[in-house]
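User: Structure tokens for this complex, please. No commentary.
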Amino acid sequence: MALYVHKYGGTSVGTVERIEAVADKLKKFKDDGHDLVVVLSAMSGETNRLIGLAQQINKQPDPREMDVLVSTGEQVTIALLCMALARRGLPARSYTGAQVRITTDSMHGKARIQEIDTERMRADLDAGRIVVVAGFQGADATGNITTLGRGGSDTTGVALAAALKADECQIYTDVDGVYTTDPRVVDSARRLETITFEEMLEMASLGSKVLQIRSVEFAGKYKVPLRVLSSFTDGPGTLITTEEDNTVEKPVISGIAFNRDEAKLTIQGVPDVPGVASRILGPISAANIEVDMILQNISEDQKTDFTFSVHRNDFAKAEGILQQIMAELGARSVVGDNKIAKVSIVGVGMRSHAGVASKMFDALAKEGINIQMISTSEIKVSIVMAEKYLELAVRALHSAFDLDASDTVSEA
Amino acid sequence: MALYVHKYGGTSVGTVERIEAVADKLKKFKDDGHDLVVVLSAMSGETNRLIGLAQQINKQPDPREMDVLVSTGEQVTIALLCMALARRGLPARSYTGAQVRITTDSMHGKARIQEIDTERMRADLDAGRIVVVAGFQGADATGNITTLGRGGSDTTGVALAAALKADECQIYTDVDGVYTTDPRVVDSARRLETITFEEMLEMASLGSKVLQIRSVEFAGKYKVPLRVLSSFTDGPGTLITTEEDNTVEKPVISGIAFNRDEAKLTIQGVPDVPGVASRILGPISAANIEVDMILQNISEDQKTDFTFSVHRNDFAKAEGILQQIMAELGARSVVGDNKIAKVSIVGVGMRSHAGVASKMFDALAKEGINIQMISTSEIKVSIVMAEKYLELAVRALHSAFDLDASDTVSEA
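Assistant:
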């Protein structure tokens, strides 16, 4: 008998029929004698509907009131699931974030969990009840409703699992696990049995949007075993766990992540003096533009080229800012390209294996793909290239690092 | 400068445009220097939508979960109104019933308010904020969400006004006040400037569904001046107040209430022995049938006829029950009529005026209307007649008691 925390996303509770299916799934776990705490998102589309109402009234709604508004979405699903469980003879109780005392700071719209009081949930579990908690929300010390930001239900699930010392936190979603890369791009992409928290973080931040990044950080920090599974099909999913458990059997590279919507900007001929980077990025950050990769190469004649990448939607805005500050920086020109894409190979194994980067560059060269930017971390190598090569690059790397599914490779 | 509690119903906040209109109205009050606490219902249709979702999942949903579900409706409107107020430069804070600490008993779906903690609202009012509270809901002592039942937002408004010692509780609705009778039946029906709590109770229970009965009781008990106004047009509405304030100027009769959907049942030739009434009404009440009028006349040969009226929808069910218990009671027969209607004249003035009832019967006789049942209270005389005479009776009485609007009668 184990204690599981289950989390079901918006698609998994998107209709009455799907809520019924979740109740059926939970019944199986309960029949097997397990204790269950269930975290739910809002029905898919509901959060956007509520945001749409707010936008009609106020283009810049007060974040406090926004949280009061959108937190209703999860409150609806938790009540409906409890009704579905009751009809199956399973006693259950629903709780909003405030009720189950998920205490957060007061940063409305992106609050962080500070404390969870497990007393009430423990009492329900001891009485044989399934506890159903609204994801994505909490309350600050004075009782104001807060939300954790988009995807925050994953974080709620992990945080509850950590607080309750659950045996596993299971995130049910519309994919059946974490893949070596996007199966829509590479036919032979394989589901991973396990992946480390660090690898998952790199994969998630690079566009494999299976899990919210903060929930993975949280799970890693509190060593909560985290599993991604499909709510529509049966299967073991992918277990995200600490490095120590499985590096031995792991290949050098776990997966290929990529991101299409990138743009890069270079300000050329900037005087290479201390403080120039912050004088460039300061106005960019002040305009709420998120910067991804940043590159500065060695200088020539005390002049250097400074390059960074942003989301494609921010390209025009960022270019305008650079044009404005170019003169005051004494730079020569601003050039940009909004038709680029980023591909990364991720794997804890590369720490102890030399030559991973060169193997990557070699595979790309064989396909005639020109590399425009390179950036590395301990467990990741990212390159930027023209967007048109994206699929070709992903397939070439997937094959070069032996990630393709084959009958001779056992997955278990 | 006064403290007003405003309550806006579902139609008044039914669309984004109407929420904007409410915000405009509140701005006027605020500009005049008044303090405001605003109670809102859910957008019209929303509560029914949520109930519909629940019904798809569980025909008999747990009342606790039902309250978690339907309480989201008001939470949406309070947030949206605060956003609309903010856009008009008016600082405002929304609160759910639980947040503002409206403590109720644990009778989910029909909870009663036990206590209201005004500290938080006072602090907001002192800081110049408009306080916006979700109507219809509260939380029990252990924090479970409760609802007060349909129309409970009126009760929330009155309870807040009582707790805050507000100068007036203003209920904004889709009619512009309380009328001498239904204007759809009598063209010359007049809006009343004032009406007493007791008269309003009789009018409300007899089908003038302007206010929820419990809110009127509550207002009367705590002497909260209560005003019914239109949220769509300007005007003074109708002030509901204590009898002492206005009996002097009041006419004998304040209004004519009526109810169409009545049915009556008579069990004939019942032995006139102690306990027979409860032996008849016990099974009726056990079947959840609400009984309105009850009549028993003097007996003849130790036998009596026992008559009562029920809602037309319950007629067949009630008749079946009477048929079953007829033999065991030793009664002769059961007769019924489901084509009847009730008309009542209401007014505190009739206490001190003899001849009100006879004037009523006389007016009906002149129109050839046969009276089937009569029932009286201190401030009301009700009669039952064939339904087809309803409009005729209401018009005749409206005229007989000088309620018709005319240029020579001042309303103020």
